[in-house]
UniProtKB/TrEMBL annotation:
It is a multi-pass membrane protein. This is Transmembrane transporter. It comes from Streptomyces glaucescens. It is found in: Membrane. Keywords: Membrane, Transmembrane, Transmembrane helix.
């Protein structure tokens, strides 16, 4: 067996990633409406199973804030037993897509759609977790969450317990924001999320604050493989739509994360089809255990690279540390205040909203900025899957519009036929402009219409041009002369 020459760097990096992943695994699980242990299980599988497989050597997988909204809706609609089936089938689909070498095509999805998806998810997470920070129950839909915030604020300020809970959540966010600004380098080596949760836990215990804490069921008790009756729900079109949403969104998020991580290091590049299969293998195992779905997570991955990791050993070891924690110290979870986890997720949701990218797009590419905003608003107003479909549809329409550049040159020498030449790409999107220009030509003069300069002429345009030529060629005027492309 070949000795890993970078084992010391990888070992140190694995501890950093473990400390970053621990509060996020628990927080994502609680926000998703499932036992906290299921988040740890997904983190363990992401480290040990997906971490061992080829694809991307340095990115780290686990439960992601980006799927929180989708998981919460799925559990609410279909129940916790069905979650395992959804994740299992999604994992199998990822394996099939990877085997068919479809991983590279996920990079063709517009970046504005992906950023809009993350922005919409971030908004829903923030709105929902503000209720959790106050110990209140959040409404079901994204719109209701946002519209209900003023009423929730009134309720919270009228309750001592809610104010104490809010104080813990706000303190957690304050620590997260200010942690990297601390002057001491030694303090900054501790991940901000872990420091914030630890400080919130100590403060809650020391002051005896009346805040809710994580409910602990035990690792083995939380593992609930889906039964045969749960597989029967695959006949439901709604459940199949959820499976498709999990598959597409988890795959896109993982492969976009891989592209981002590749820019952070100079090691081996990601093999996208193999990485998609690795994600599929991990989700298949997670589904079989009834756990949360996984994606590659940019927060953990960037922490892994920044900590000096050189090989996949660091991410595998981080999974081992999660397993040891879940097996040996499960009771420690019961001390963590829920508003502290809500604060961690509010901070994570805020970071999902691409404020700088949106400002840059608005200055240089307003069409892309519009796609980003519409995708985000659609996710908040409807749901994640349909919101992403709206964004993709807008992106396709915008691309088609930009690709259908057409130019009409008219030469009128005052006598003889009017010469009109079309060049570029004539599609139905440009028909109003083309017909408007042709119909403005003199009605009492013959016309020669040259289409040889067109790179593309779709059926709608061809039919419309032929109809115009027939109308123009009335009695007493020579028929329109059409010159088609060779």
């Amino acid at each position: 067996m070949t000795k890993n020459p970078y084992l010391r760097q990888d070992f140190a990096a694995s501890l950093v990633v473990f400390l970053v992943a621990l509060p996020l695994c628990v927080g994502v699980a609680v926000a998703s409406g499932v036992p906290a242990e299921l988040g740890l299980i997904t983190g363990i599988v992401g480290g040990i199973v997906t971490g061992l497989l080829p694809g991307s050597s340095l990115q780290v997988s686990g439960p992601a804030a980006g799927l929180t909204v989708l998981v919460f809706e799925a559990v609410r609609e279909f129940g916790l037993p069905a979650l395992g089936v959804i994740v299992l089938v999604a994992g199998l689909l990822q394996l099939v897509m990877g085997a068919l070498r479809l991983g590279r095509y996920f990079r063709a999805i517009s970046l504005s759609v992906v950023e809009g998806m993350l922005a919409g998810i971030g908004l829903v997470i923030i709105a929902g977790q503000l209720y959790a920070a106050a110990g209140l129950e959040a409404p079901a839909s994204g719109v209701d969450k946002i519209l209900g915030l003023p009423g929730a604020a009134v309720d919270a300020f009228g309750s001592t317990d809610a104010l104490a809970s809010l104080a813990v959540g706000a303190g957690t966010v304050a620590v997260l924001v200010g942690w990297k600004k601390l002057p001491g380098r030694a303090a900054r080596t501790v991940p901000g999320a872990l420091a914030a949760v630890l400080l919130a836990t100590v403060a809650s215990l020391a002051l005896g604050l009346p805040v809710a804490t994580v409910e602990v069921n035990g690792l083995l008790d939380s593992v609930q493989p889906p039964g045969l009756d749960a597989f029967g729900e695959l006949a439901s079109p709604a459940l199949l739509g959820t499976v498709l949403a999990f598959t597409l969104i988890a795959s896109a998020e993982s492969l976009f994360s891989a592209a981002a991580v590749d820019r952070l290091h100079d090691g081996p590049r990601t093999q996208y089809d193999k990485e998609l299969m690795a994600q599929g293998a991990g989700n298949t195992v997670c589904g079989a255990l009834g756990a949360l779905p996984m994606t590659a997570v940019i927060v953990r991955s960037s922490a892994n690279v920044a900590a000096g990791a050189r090989t996949k050993a660091s991410r595998v070891l981080h999974g081992v540390w999660l397993l040891l924690f879940a097996a040996l110290l499960p009771s420690a979870l019961a001390l963590i205040p829920l508003p502290a986890l809500a604060g961690v997720l509010v901070h994570a949701g805020w970071k999902l909203i691409p404020f700088r990218q949106l400002a840059a797009l608005w200055r240089g590419h307003r069409g892309e900025a519009l796609i980003l905003v519409v995708t985000a608003v659609s996710i908040v107003a409807v749901n994640m899957f349909e919101g992403v479909l709206v964004g993709i549809a807008l992106s396709v329409v915008k691309t088609a519009w930009e690709a259908s550049h057409v130019r009409l040159e008219v030469v009128d020498k005052g006598a003889g036929p009017v010469q009109a030449c079309l060049s570029g790409n004539a599609t139905f999107l440009r028909l109003p402009k083309i017909l408007g220009s042709l119909e403005s030509l003199p009605q009492d003069r013959p016309v020669e219409l040259d289409l040889s300069g067109l790179h593309h002429l779709d059926h709608a345009c061809r039919t419309a041009l032929e109809s115009w030529a027939e109308r123009h060629s009335h009695s007493g005027i020579e028929p329109v002369k059409l010159t088609m492309a060779a």
